[in-house]
Amino acid sequence: MSESLKELSRLLKESKVKITALNADAKAEGALKEDYEKRLIQAMDAAGTTTVTNEHGSFGRTETVLPVAKDWDAIYDYVKQNDAFHLLYRQVTSTTYREMLAAGEVIPGIESYTRVTVSVRKPKN
Predict the structure, then answer these.
(1) Per the confidence metrics, is the pTM higher than 0.70?
(2) What is the pLDDT of residues 67-77, one digit of tens each?
């Protein structure tokens, strides 16, 4: 390996700082975008239209119905009684799985893998 640990750690730190700055910029720009979308929807409503086409592009209003879970017990009962497991997102909760694994419980159908990462902290002064 031609690169030293010091050099690699410096490069990783610089990359992390750049990503943090870019994420902050993206978050701010995302907030602006949401505000522009709300204002455009209000203007479209006021104009009585669902589309706008101009030199900047075509902009169409779409409406999507999304679920908001209010009573998980009722939802789970429905899913079980109606074999409607397709309603649920298929992902095992990592924290709970690790806790159960540490307690010696084996859960059928789950395999584990270990992800290795590097944590970066500020230097001590």
Answers:
(1) no
(2) 999 999 999 99
User: CA–CA distance from 53 to each of 13, 38, 57 (Å)?
Assistant: 45, 17, 6
What gap in Å lies between CA 25 and CA 40, rounded to an integer?
22
Give the whole-angstrom CA distance, residue 67 versus residue 111: 30
Among 82, 79, 101, 81, CA closest to 90: 79
Q: What are phi and psi of 57, to 5 degrees?
A: 135, -170
Taking alpha carbons only, the member of 118, 73, 113 closest to residue 92 is 113
- Domain extent for 82: 67-112
Residue 1, SS3? coil
**Same domain for 14 and 58:** yes
Residues 37 and 59 in one domain: yes
Share of the chain above pLDDT 70, in %: 99
Q: Are 36 and 24 in contact (CB under 8 A)?
A: no
Helix (H) or strand (E) holding 20: helix 5-47
Residue 28 included in any domain: yes
